[in-house]
């Protein structure tokens, strides 16, 4: 991903950052008490960052375990970005195609006709409407039979009015 020169520069930069952190920790121990208090307050404020390294100095108390520092990630080139975009778009289209194939398998009216996406969606909506109407008819018939037998029909029907929601 990176050229050899870029990798060397990155490693040198990371070494410099680590050395600066070590220098800052050692300078904290030799500071006068007033500036030490300021730095202690700064430490308290910055303690909840997920990228802070574990401290091993005795004045900080026990070492806490937390999220580890993320390794530096490499930037993608334009061709890699384009390839990733193409792959994700192909995956999205394949998932849509699978969904349409599943609808074709489920909806009986789609067995023997030309299957454009709009036709698949329209026939699926019609099929769902028919299923809801059949279910409501069966529930109404069950209520009628219960009342004929002298039983109290169930009034708790959460599916009533489903036909109005589908347009």
Automatic annotation (TrEMBL):
PANTHER family xref list: BASIC HELIX-LOOP-HELIX ZIP TRANSCRIPTION FACTOR, TRANSCRIPTION FACTOR AP-4
Molecular function, one GO term: RNA polymerase II cis-regulatory region sequence-specific DNA binding
The name this protein goes by in its record: BHLH domain-containing protein
The species this protein was found in: Thamnidium elegans
Pfam families hit by this protein: HLH
Subcellular location: Nucleus
Stretches with biased composition (Acidic residues): 152-167
Every BHLH domain range: 80-131
Biased composition (Basic and acidic residues): 71-81
SMART domains in the record: HLH (SM00353)
A GO CC term assigned to this protein in UniProt: nucleus
Region (Disordered): 15-93, 143-167
Main subcellular location of this protein, as a coarse class: nucleus
InterPro entries (UniProt xref): bHLH_dom, HLH_DNA-bd_sf, Max-like/E-box_TFs
Record keywords: DNA-binding, Nucleus, Transcription, Transcription regulation
Domain of life: Eukaryota
PROSITE patterns membership: BHLH
